[in-house]
Amino acid sequence: MSASTVSRTPAPRPARPTGRRPAWLRGRRPAGRPDARPAVRVRRQLPTSPWLFAAPGLLVTAAFVLYPFLSTVVNAFTDRRTLVPGRFVGLANFRELLHDDMFWIGLRNSVLYIAGVVPALVILPLLLALLVQKNIPGIAFFRSAFYTPVVASIVVVGLIWVWLLDERGLVNSLLETIGLGRVGFLSDQWLLLISAMTVTVWKGLGYYMIVYLAALANVPRELHEAAAVDGAGAVRRFLTVTVPAVRSTMVLVAALSSVAAFKVFSEVYLMAGPSGGPAGEDTTLVMLVQRTGTGLSGRVGYASAISLVVFVVTVVLMLLVLRADRKEDA
Amino acid sequence: MSTTADTPAAKPAAPARKPRLTDEHGRRIPVWELVLRYALLLAVLALTVGPFLWQLSTSLKGPTEDIFSSPPKFLPGHPTLHNYARVSDTIPVWDYALNSLKVAAANVVTNCVGSALAGYALARLRYRGRGAATLVFVLAMLVPAEGIIIAQFTTMRELGLNNTLVGVVLPGSVAALNVLLMRNAFRNLPYEVEEAAYVDGADVWQRFCRIALPSVKGTLAVVAIFAFMGAWDDFLWPLIVLSDPSKFTLTIGLNYLHGTFAGDERLVAAGTVIAVAPLIALFACLQRFFFRGVGEGAVKG
Known about the structure:
The complex is a heterodimer of chains A (330) and B (301). Chain A is mostly helical. Chain A is 67% helix and 0% strand.
């Protein structure tokens, strides 16, 4: 926000003595070439500031992303509550975190979520992309159908699966029909977490399938043919040709899905309930943020401290994945 | 699920009868491979679309029909729309749908206008501070929404906009990702046309509206679709900012319905069908923009 007010001044630009082309267009000509259109240039100095173009975007971003980010950082060191302005408390929130069982449960579940979801989301969509890559009749229909879960709201998806995995739901009916007993998918702490991971993977498959399809289109056909001539079977070709060719996409998918998995909220919230399942054992970090920081008695300061942990872990995850990528390159 | 299997099941037979089917390099695909491929495709189809159809089937089952039977009954014996009438007696589901529509429509307009303008400023206009402005959007894109949601909530309270639909729309009204997408789209346009217009005396607004904007319609459509989908599907933020049940959006209303009337699966099923149907229709009509958006978004992210 401040940027736009400060920089409004240089907007009437004729006075700029830089000697460079003052045109609105970013020129691609050699810099030394004098502007060939002095007459038009005079007409160009209309009071339309470029900042007017950027202003809506900058205002929204500054007010609802950057300012909240800064205030999250500040609030994390205060005891602010929803209705009570905070005082500076130093590291007290973070010290409290260390002794807060719920925080460790949340951290554990969010990390487990990465471990459970990311490998599946890196590998399964790649296999799916290979399945729908070949142009056989009706393939466009299958591609679209596989994408449908991506389009649906996570709330819809969550509720569909709550019903499917219900004690008396479809999955248990089928299990009973084939002679296996009913399973309490949504009542056991660990089964619940695994069920939620399954839902996340199910909803993400189509999205990453499309990402992989784009990458597969760029794999040179000759590589496959050469490998086939050398007598490599389908599995061998997959491992020696396809995987190396789409490796950077796999890293991208790993990065995107691990960040998303760590911040999981809706699936677990819908399947385990707002309090996070039996004794809150299925709470994730973002659920804890939501539960702690909202409402009239919300502990904004403490929730901000947890948010900051979420933020730092997210950044570290991105860096780790990107570094892994670079190392493999070397 | 049986309904899914029925329609495309006819397909594997057809190519098997035409053994001339070839891949993109003119090689024949062996019949056994085709059969295997279609078998796998149908299995995945059952897994991805089946749950939606099961939900639809549940929503059409009457109050006397057993929805818990084992083995399960995939098709409703006497299909009825009774549950859809009941769900609107239980929660104001059509009001919620209208709220969702308002939020989604507003999100589309603000994102299209805001990101096109800002994207043009970042890509084509020349001014001091452009690098800084770009940096603002790049940084904003890196901040995880979940990490600042509490501060966004307190910001909304400070502005007196919590518990309003305006408050639901505002934080995502000009998403940084969209601004950068539009910037890239504008940057990829050739300069010559705009330069010609410049020589002809077109001012910056004319160049923006008449020349640049029509050339990036595709990206603009992607922004619009993802803005609509994002707002329609969003859950965490409306859950935090809305507390008054009369202002709920569909997703929050469904969560409420599920929490309050958890016993009645037919009702919840009808509610979820209402929530998902518009998006599936939209997707069916505009698929290529959805797929294109995945490509651009993933490369960006």
